[in-house]
Amino acid sequence: MRLCMFHPNDNPIERGWVGRLDGDRVLHLAAQTLQAFFLGGSGAREHAEYPLADVTLLVPVQFPPTVRVFSSSDSFRFANPTAVVGTNVAVEGRSLTARARVAAVIGAGGEVGGYAGLVEWQDPGEQPTEKQSDFGIVLGPGVVTPDELEPGSVACRLTGDGHTGEVGEDPFSWPGAIALAARRTVLRPGDVIAGPPVGVLTGVSEGVRFEVEGVGALDCPLVP
Q1: What's the start-to-end Cα distance of the chain, in Å?
Q2: What's the rounded mean pLDDT across residues 109-127?
């Protein structure tokens, strides 16, 4: 399934509704949040149907419990959960670095609920260095369940300011990363685990677009 959080354009709702993306339409599912959907066994009755053109996609997980950003299968750092926003939400900055990643969203029982695109903005001029990536993490546009997506084999494309980002091969071990993240702690529904960069663009001032096969396009504009 391709899941999302959304609201109809004529009925803005900050948190939004859970939806299932199906081609050019969105089906409203009876769950309060994506986390609740996973905890309910990934099943919920369908409500109304909306044309995709008539809705706004929101961040799939608002304020995740934790965000872990991996540089390799055995190394990660924590990122700021309150910096997570959805597609088409502008982030402030100029001459930034965009690091595009595939991310897992944890579901029930510490297992992966689904995968999404993630763009982490970094400002190389910010000091101290800990603040360089503390302000803008774009997640979405939806979350695709593991039965429909193999994260190590999807095609990704990062573009922005007229350039295409460098894309490297991904030898990343998702099972190893999940196991490391869960060691001596508990993974909760909504936790986000981001893999290593699959595309990087530097000196970005207008914004980027990150396309992940099977997930969709994540649009990440910048404002001064």
Answers
A1: 37
A2: 97
DSSP characters over 102-115 = EEEEE-GGGSEEEE
Q: In this structure, what token pair is assigned to residue 56?
A: 């706004």
Long-range contacts, stretch 63-68, CB < 8 angstroms, 24+ apart = 64/105, 64/190, 64/191, 64/192, 65/188, 65/190, 65/191, 66/188, 66/191, 66/192, 67/137, 67/191, 67/192, 67/194, 68/181, 68/191, 68/192, 68/193, 68/194
Enter the DSSP assignment of 64.
-
Cis check: omega of the bond before 128, within 30 degrees of 0: yes
Architecture of domain 67-223: Alpha-Beta Complex (3.90)
CA distance 185 to 202: 35
pLDDT digits (tens, 9 = 90+) for 76-104: 999 999 999 999 999 999 999 999 999 99
d(CA 78, CA 26): 33
- Ordered by start, the domain boundaries in the chain are 2-58, 67-223
Q: What is the 3-state secondary structure (H, E, C) of 65-92?
A: CCEEEEEECCEEEEECHHHEECCCCCEE
Please, are residues 203 and 218 in contact by the beta-carbon 8 Å criterion? no
Report whether 145 contacts 113 (CB < 8 A).
yes
**196: which DSSP letter?**
S
- pLDDT given for residue 104 in this prediction: 98
Q: Classify domain 2-58 by CATH architecture.
A: Roll (2.30)
